[in-house]
Amino acid sequence: MLCGTRTTIAITIGIFGALALAVPARAADAPKSLHYLNGHFEPANLAVPANAPFTVQVSNQDGAVIEFESFELHRERVVRPGETITVYIPALAPGDYDFFDDFHHDAPKGVIVAK
Prior knowledge:
- The chain is of the alpha+beta class.
- It has 1 helix and 9 strands.
- The longest helix has 21 residues, at 2-22.
- The relative contact order is 0.21.
């Protein structure tokens, strides 16, 4: 019976090891970064690969609370001064997706471009 348990564990480890090798790490998997400073987002245009999920790290380097919001992406997150948040975004069809600071409507909008 002990031999059967060891075999099961070895097979399980082998399967998970093979799965880990089957999914290579890609540079596109690295989080994208947005910084909010002096009343606007940098970069204002963020290019991402289409049809692949990704994450965006939003860093508020300004002195006021902001809200990263996008109607098209169905996302809104409050970001306090000095804070960095991670926004998970599913695979997007090719196109442009606006985002803005909902607490400061005079701040310029940004766009995520999926291509």
